[in-house]
Here is the input.
Amino acid sequence: MNTNSRTVTRSIETDPSPELVLQFLSDPQRIPQWASGFADRVDADGGGGWRVTKGDKTFSLEVVASVPAGTVDYLRQITPDQKGGAFLRVLPRPRGGCVIVMTLPVVLGATVEETTTILDQELQALTTLCETL
Here is the structure.
């Protein structure tokens, strides 16, 4: 594992269809159900975007989803000129189900190992939820 990495990418296989997983991911209000370390609550901001609350902090979130491309990106302003966040890809498996691929940034003060652990936990929680839909 490269300890100088700026991102971590992991994947997980699951039995639900790509369409079901993409529908779930496209609803940002569901993020706290599987990524509670990121968000306690997600609400529409009235202008087509989203407001995330985590503890006593709030920030704007942009959700860019393309069902035909199998992508959902959760973006926030990192610097005045840069957006970043979680990038998810949902790939169909040959005999049904899908593979979910997620890339997260390694945030300042975190290690690659810590980010990998969080990402693995979030992917497992996500697949568990999708398998019960």
